[in-house]
């Protein structure tokens, strides 16, 4: 693997602690999902709170990998755009 991009010169191996920012992005994505899921389930679909949290835990057990990958990609994209300026 190249150490940096031949076109733009950005490093492919960022410094240690680089992906701490992706944890904040992941937290934001997860929070938006959980709040919208609970709001929709309780207020629109009229589900009980217990059912809502059970379904939320079930869905998050599968979606955490998706949120993890999306947040890392978003964080790298944000970082790359800031480095290019």
User: How is the biggest beta sheet arranged?
Assistant: none
Strand content: under 5%
- Runs with pLDDT <50, length 5+? none
* SSE series: HH
Mean pLDDT: 87
- Cα distance, first to last residue? 25 Å
Helix content estimate: over 70%
State the secondary-structure class. Answer: mainly alpha
Coarse morphology: elongated
How many distinct beta strands?
A: 0
Radius of gyration: 18 Å
Question: What is the number of helices?
Answer: 2
The oligomerization state is: single chain
The domain tally reads 1
What's the short version?
By secondary structure, this protein is mainly alpha-helical. The chain has two helices and no strands.
Could you characterize the architecture of this molecule?
With 85 residues, this protein is mainly α. The chain has one domain (22-84). The chain has helices spanning 20-44, 49-84. The longest helix has 36 residues, at 49-84. The chain is elongated.
Write the layout of secondary structure elements.
Layout: H1 20-44, H2 49-84
Structural descriptors:
85 residues, 2 helices
